Amino acid sequence: MSYRDEDIEFANRILTQREELNEEEVAAWLRVKDHVELLDEIAAIRQKLSGRGYGENVDVEYQRLEQAVYDRKSRRMTLRWSVAASIILLVGLFVGRMINDVRDMHDEQVLTTNAMQPGKSKAILMTADGKKVALEQNRDLNIQLNERVRVATTGEGIVYEETGKGSVKEEYNTLSTPVGGEYALTLADGTKVYLNADSELKYPVEFLNGKRVVDLKGEAYFDVRKDSLHPFIVRVNGAEVQVLGTSFNINAYGDDGRMYTTLVDGSIRFSSEKSGQEEVLTPGMQSVMSLETGKFMLYEVDVEPYIAWRKGRFVFQSMTLDLLMRQLQRWYDFEVFYQNQDLKDYVFRGVINRDMELDRVLSVIAATTDVDFKVQGKVITIIKR
């Protein structure tokens, strides 16, 4: 495809007379990928021909430019004389900077349409026979797992239901959420579990022999169905949380080398296999365990910030930028780099809705700190302002 004369002329005006152009018109023109490629091509030609004594022989210069275009793209551009002459006289650094700015703008547009969207309800269900089922919003599911139990979708996620009688089997399913996903399930005993992003829960299709035991990776909120005869046990990172009927949150991501278990109501017994410690928590208490040593401490806390994700919010209480970005990475799916490591220790306080697009979230953070964010594709670089 050959470039149109009017596009070549407009590209030249952007590079040489930007201040005279309407910004909205320029922005609209630059949304077209071919237009960015045109600017890129001109810059590459300018750099290739740099240093050959421009202005001494205009005819030769025009031939060089035209031949370079042909060599670079194997196609001939119809260039008007005024355009060729002015492009040849461009300052190399200015052109390079302009092209980089345009590239950055397009990278940001790609991120806005693809990577900047918040997470949503999605997960993968692995059944006992090894089948993987993708779970998305508004997808109906109805699978008969065995003679006694089926799994089906509900308004909140999936639910395990007893459908008949038959032989009892010890079978396990695994529900895992990807980065940028969350999902809810109701276990066979009626216990509700809400999985945060990048998390996994392994659990029995039906609880047998009075045991109610599940294994967790990542973060989950539990609303346990009360059964005084059969304690509910969560195994996670070498620790056990045992309950009879209660609501609590476990954050075992280990971003800072610790695991946080926060009790909303009821009571739980927290025990560490490594340290041998065991304590009973009452509502409003939190166990903070070192993943390295297994030792833990108990604190009285405001539980809301620790369960805010269930209500669609991020709540950051004097949180370092490093830990904050780790949370955002799991929800928005991007890579992050720091201009220098000291920036990781910057502290941020605030509340952000989880349904906000990432560019808006970064704007909020930038407005309340002295850092800026450079976005290129799915990579964010944090720099000091």
Structure description:
- This protein is an alpha+beta fold.
- It is 28% helix and 34% strand.
- It has 9 helices and 24 strands.
- The chain has a 19-stranded mixed sheet that branches.
- α3 (33-48) runs antiparallel to α6 and α4 (58-73) packs across α5 (81-88).
- The protein is globular and about 80 Å long.
- The model is unreliable at 46-58, 72-95 and 107-115 (pLDDT under 50).
Quick overview of this protein structure:
With 385 residues, the chain is an alpha+beta fold.
Keywords:
385 residues; 19-stranded mixed beta sheet; 24 strands
The radius of gyration computed from the alpha-carbon positions, rounded to a whole number of angstroms, is: 29 Å
Structural class: alpha+beta
Helix content: 25-40%
What would you call the shape? globular
Strand portion: 25-35%
Output mean pLDDT: 80
Report the span from N to C terminus.
42 Å
Strand count, sense and closure of the main sheet? 19 strands, mixed
User: Total helix count?
Assistant: 9
Count of beta strands: 24
Low-confidence region ranges? 46-58, 72-95, 107-115
How would you summarize the topology of this molecule?
Elements: H1 5-16, H2 23-30, H3 33-48, H4 58-73, H5 81-88, H6 92-113, E1 120-126, E2 132-136, E3 142-144, E4 149-153, E5 158-162, E6 172-177, E7 181-186, E8 192-195, E9 199-204, E10 212-217, E11 219-223, E12 232-236, E13 239-243, E14 247-251, E15 258-265, E16 268-272, E17 278-281, E18 285-290, E19 296-300, H7 304-307, E20 313-320, H8 321-332, E21 335-338, E22 347-353, H9 358-368, E23 371-376, E24 379-384
Parallel strand pairs: 1-7, 5-7, 10-12, 21-24
Antiparallel strand pairs: 1-2, 1-6, 3-4, 4-5, 6-9, 7-8, 8-11, 9-10, 11-14, 12-13, 13-16, 14-15, 15-18, 16-17, 18-19, 20-22, 23-24
Helix pairs in contact: 3-4, 3-6, 4-5
